[in-house]
# Entry
Amino acid sequence: MVMDRIALLLAIIGGINWGSVGLFRFDLVAWLFGGQTATVSRVIYTLVGLSALWCVSLLFRSDAITDGDM
# Structure
């Protein structure tokens, strides 16, 4: 449950970053952490990618988050 929320939060952050790249050609993660090739940026990109893969599993689970779980 906690892992699902962390993964969802990271996927949302990644989506916002990709939206800013698409709309404004501005990579927020690279700007905050010293460029696309900086170690911290690469770690964040990797965590966002892994979290997106984790979120795919949410589509196929029957115990998805319901109103009572929050």
